[in-house]
């Protein structure tokens, strides 16, 4: 696939984010031309990287593929009503503007991979989490689910474009993302179990995210929605045990659910609730994950970070 992408033009929105940064570095290393969209003004001396702040710049360009990752970080800032609207609009509005520009300039990329999250599936109000979700599972009436529903609907509304939706789990990798925050209390030997510790931890290595995007570029399937998550089935306490073993630490203090809710309000759902999700569609189409278990993924990331 990469040989087919050499000298192709790929537009990446949300290019300055964690996944976008990793994806662009990978593309540039393999001689792919990148048009990187960011709301912040950026420049690059790399011959194959062009930063844009406005989709009007697409009028002079040819696009072969698009990866739509735009959206403010869900974990930064308390979920006030104003914050919720910003989170929704940063995704829905940018997606809307992207497709409007593609239509206006008559651009027909071979494939558009548009982001979403497994938060689409919501939580079970009675059990605090959902089991065995796949791409056919229904959403719930909570904020994360409603945000993802709106985000996906905007992308899939444009039926003239070949759009694939990727619902991401928690993405682990070097150089950023949420993992450093998750590892810090373990590194200092402090916090272990959070709440019951039985809440699902559905994750994916950033390297597998990159390969999944490339896989979807060439997919001939009529399927439109894909869970991009490792085929693993662990909970929060299992994550702590694996990370503590690799880090050679012994975290001992539990953090009660009530404390998390006092600190984070509704946003505590990100830590206390969750979904067990399987990448059913990807596996059915023959995608091979490089990191199928948490221990191999964390060991690679932690060891690479300390070298």
Automatic annotation (TrEMBL):
Residues 10-228 form the NAD-dependent epimerase/dehydratase domain. It comes from the Bacteria. Residues 256-301 form the DUF1731 domain. SUPFAM superfamilies: NAD(P)-binding Rossmann-fold domains. InterPro entries: DUF1731, Epimerase_deHydtase, NAD(P)-bd_dom_sf, SDR39U1. Pfam families: DUF1731, Epimerase. Belongs to the NAD(P)-dependent epimerase/dehydratase family. SDR39U1 subfamily. PANTHER family: EPIMERASE FAMILY PROTEIN SDR39U1, SUGAR NUCLEOTIDE EPIMERASE RELATED. This is TIGR01777 family protein. It comes from Acinetobacter defluvii.
């Amino acid at each position: 696939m990469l040989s087919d992408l050499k000298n192709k033009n790929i537009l990446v929105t949300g290019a300055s984010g964690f996944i976008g940064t990793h994806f662009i570095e990978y593309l540039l290393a393999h001689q792919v031309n990148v048009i990187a969209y960011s709301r912040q003004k950026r420049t690059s001396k790399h011959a194959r990287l062009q930063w844009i702040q406005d989709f009007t710049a697409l009028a002079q360009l040819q696009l072969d593929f698009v990866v739509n990752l735009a959206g403010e970080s869900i974990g930064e800032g308390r979920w006030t009503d104003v914050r919720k609207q910003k989170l929704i609009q940063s995704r829905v509005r940018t997606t809307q503007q992207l497709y409007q520009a593609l239509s206006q300039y008559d651009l027909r990329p071979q494939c558009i991979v548009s982001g979403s999250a497994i938060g689409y599936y919501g939580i079970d109000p009675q059990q605090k989490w959902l089991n065995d979700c796949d791409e056919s599972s229904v959403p719930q009436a909570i904020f994360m689910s409603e945000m993802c529903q709106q985000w996906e609907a905007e992308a899939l509304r444009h039926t003239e474009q070949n759009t694939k939706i990727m619902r991401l789990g928690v993405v682990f990798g070097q150089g950023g993302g949420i993992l450093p925050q998750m590892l810090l209390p373990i590194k200092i030997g402090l916090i272990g179990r959070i709440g019951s510790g039985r809440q699902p931890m559905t994750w994916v290595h950033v390297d597998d995210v990159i390969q999944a995007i490339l896989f979807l570029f060439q997919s001939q399937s009529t399927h439109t929605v894909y869970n991009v998550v490792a085929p693993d089935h662990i909970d929060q306490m299992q994550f702590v045990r694996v990370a503590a073993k690799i880090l050679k630490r012994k975290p001992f203090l539990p953090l009660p659910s009530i404390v998390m809710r006092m600190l984070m309000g509704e946003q505590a759902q990100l830590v206390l609730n969750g979904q067990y999700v399987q990448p059913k569609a990807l596996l059915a189409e023959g995608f091979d994950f490089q990191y199928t278990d948490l221990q191999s993924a964390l060991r690679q990331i932690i060891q690479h970070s300390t070298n």
